[in-house]
Amino acid sequence: MSCCDLAAAGQLGKAGIMASDCEPALNQAEGRNPTLERYLGALREAKNDSEQFAALLLVTKAVKAGDIDAKTRRRIFDAVGFTFPNRLLTSKEAPDGCPDHVLRALGVALLACFCSDPELATHPQVLNKIPILSTFLTARGDPDDAARRSMIDDTYQCLTAVAGTPRGPRHLIAGGTVSALCQAYLGHGYGFDQALALLVGLLAAAETQCWKEAEPDLLAVLRGLSEDFQKAEDASKFELCQLLPLFLPPTTVPPECLRDLQAGLARILGSKLSSWQRNPALKLAARLAHACGSDWIPAGNSGSKFLALLVNLACVEVRLALEETGTEVKEDVVTACYALMELGIQECTRCEQSLLKEPQKVQLVSIMKEAIGAVIHYLLQVGPEKQKEPFVFASVRILGAWLAEETSSLRKEVCQLLPFLVRYAKTLYEEAEEANDLSQQVANLAISPTTPGPAWPGDALRLLLPGWCHLTVEDGPREILIKEGAPSLLCKYFLQQWELTSPGHDTSVLPDSVEIGLQTCCHIFLNLVVTAPGLIKRDACFTSLMNTLMTSLPALVQQQGRLLLAANVATLGLLMARLLSTSPALQGTPASRGFFAAAILFLSQSHVARATPGSEQAVLALSPDYEGIWADLQELWFLGMQAFTGCVPLLPWLAPAALRSRWPQELLQLLGSVSPNSVKPEMVAAYQGVLVELARANRLCREAMRLQAGEETASHYRMAALEQCLSEP
What we know:
The chain is mostly helical.
């Protein structure tokens, strides 16, 4: 066959097999075209390449361009099969006088036609061509060659068809398509816009896998897009706003990209814009805020003004969307604004190295207060039928972030909303799987779930814990929470979350938010112990909680890196033990003895004697494990000492148990080995409280303290109550 014949055969794509003309036509009459059927028969019976080419030409003449429907296309495939296109795609030699890509172009045209059938697009013979097709995207050649351009178009149609199948993106990623698309886009050759469109689709479908397979190439695309965004002066900058969020990596964003993105956003948001222009910019800013916090915003006057502008625009958008009844809420935009408001809350509450000046903070808090008022207004109108909608979850999240830092303002409105929040949290807690799915849907509204940054909690209750911790201190809100059943819900939640940290679970893979949530629950319970002791005594859920605390603390105090949680559990358990001292579970049972032994371990290991250069006497110093977290620990430690002191007269078996642990003897020994001047008055008071109660409760304790020079130590530290107690028989 001559090159002319071969070129004529290539016109097959132009007539009916070219990918661009392979879309199904309107159904024709049921009767088949006898001429076409005869030519298809010749195609099936072809014995060599020349006969196959000739038959393909005949088929082309019988079928007008755009006339091929799905059934006809399938019959052509049945006649041709994959063997012939496979040979064309792998052919390295073209007939004399023909371009070297002509055979491959015809093979790709056939393959593109077949890929128009979704069933054929997933055929193994198509999928194993992905690496070959990907190489065509970056092959060098004459950019003005029409045949080469047609081959590139057909290649994109093949890959796009595969990408549209359920498992297609995974096959494309494994076949190296992502890197090829990146290189094709960066080369800005023919079809580079198609490369970008397909990249966007693959990132939307399988972001994590794309970055895992082609991170360097995707970062190169991000650099190019960011630079284009920073320089753009026309409408393309708004289109880039929509594309760029998909190209932010799950790892660190390169600094040069952050600079370009911030500069581009500053120019856009600083201009007077319509909503369709502003909204994509707000969504891009929200992605950056979620991924990088405020690190992408430059320090100094320009950065503070930009941040204030961002938060201001977000608050205005929230108020416009939620205050006006009857208007359709653009949930993705408002969710993005919520993320920017969270950034504003974080910066307004940051004491050191904040981007904002104090006057700016005051102004933004006032603006955010109005926006939060709009959020509360919206949530008050949410009925049971909407409680499982992602946007409601997002609205509860931003309210939780606000309440974690500010509960004094909008108190009346917050109290009015509390019954809804308790019911909402209970509903999502009882349907935990749906809550996790809601969290994912919220993230997808405006923020990619694989972007680094704070995780979106999978339950509403964790979002509300910090705010409830503040509210349980106040009489009014606390009474509402108790009336609505929040304490019982919190106990159930705590016990469920505690199971995740119990033996048999890999705690190393747990997010930090689980442990933080447990600590916050402890703080809420501590507030209730102090402000509502009657509730602790009468509600059965607290008996279950006490049992869990007693059985869990012995193992917890032995675990490295969990001292702060152990402090919360020990202190809460000691305070509850005072209120539940008549419970059978606390009458010297193995669990109660194990708990108090662990509590003594926590309290006794906080301080050590430390030698100081140039001094004959050691000083009292924090233990290494306690030293780094003492700022967060000390209040719990002092409260725990006070609670233990209160338990001693209520539990007769406790003083002998403490004596067997040698805590009173070792405590007196520690005080005797250090300079009294190194022991702060509050430490002296805490130690004296424990020693006095132990001495009063048990004669053997008094004798052991005397043998440990207790009277002399008490005199040195001016512990009058202890000195008097030890002087008695």
